[in-house]
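Lab notebook, entry 376. We have the chain sequence and a SMILES string for copper (II) ion, and the next step in the workflow is to get a structural model of the bound complex before anyone spends time on docking refinements. Request logged below.

Task: model protein plus copper (II) ion, output structure tokens.
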Amino acid sequence: MVRPQPLGRGRRPDPERRGKIFRYAIISLVIRLTRRRLLSAVPAAGLGATALHTAIPHSHGSANAAEQHAGAAAAASLGHAGGGHAAFRGREVDHRANGFDPHLILRDFDEGKVSRLANGRTLREWTIAAAEQEIEVAPGVKFAAWSYNGRIPGPTLRAREGDRLRIRFVNGGRHPHTMHFHGIHPASADGVAGLGDGEVPPGGETVYEFDAAPYGLHLYHCHVRPLAEHIAKGLYGAFLIDPADAREEADEMVMVMNGFDTNFDRANEVYAANTIGFAYSEKPIRIKRGELVRLYLVNVLEYDLINSFHLHGNFFDYIPTGTSKQASELTDTVMLCQGQRGILEMRFPYTGKYMFHAHQSEFTELGWMGFFEVTD
Ligand SMILES: [Cu+2]
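Result returned:
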């Protein structure tokens, strides 16, 4: 689903990539010369917004030069000025207009409507609706997105191993969609074309029902072709199954690493954890010194082969896929391909601000970085 391409600017880029970098360089120069005018010309409506708003899915091939230029300009202005967001200081994403706030998504776990089956087992039920909505992924950069329950990533669904799960999926979009869960379940609940109810047409709905297994950190996403577009548009979320004997109490949070192709060139212009570039940089994540922090980390990034998480000033225990109680590694950097995920556990011995970011510098500069602020 992803097309091979260089991982960073240090590698020898392919011609398309070189074109993108060249475009960035030119646009960055123009921006440097006309920053004041450009910033006032990038209203909340967004430079690329008009073009992007009317863009229909899968239209990346037909996006005209003006659209591409507009999207790239908005994104380049984001990535420019060393850390990019500096150019937007004082400008913020309108979380209210988006309908979600990455700081709330961070610690939000949806355990569903809980009841007990006749056999004594726990039943968890959710209703998840797909919709189309425009979101501001970085200050002034709008993206015509698809969402589950009005947010990107979709709700973090949380269950305990052995629970019965019943997910009613309603397609409120204009294209067929599904929910495909990672985990162990019958083929009929797999959320792909030709199995069970298969693709759910616009206005249609279906129910996915299965047992929660195995315990660990998983994900769900739409599995309709073209898959890259359906995922990159925003149809994904974390799916967490706790072990029967719960993990130790901790300050728990979820980061879904993602990105946005705002100019339809099958490469991302904005990178983030939980969608909004620089959100955790503008407003650091507050944690307490000495407290156990458990980070559920999922990579859904489309169009780039690898993503990563690197922590400053500390190390963490890493549990791949969360399917064990034992960490496999003590490290400060993990590398994940699309669909890979894991649990990070750490305690900060010192107070202060500690950066975290992708160790692909390009991603960092285009939004995927933030800070933990450790206090007593
Ligand atoms: Cu879809």
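Notes for the group: The CA atoms of residues 154 and 237 lie 5 Å apart. Worth checking against the assay data. The radius of gyration is 20 Å.
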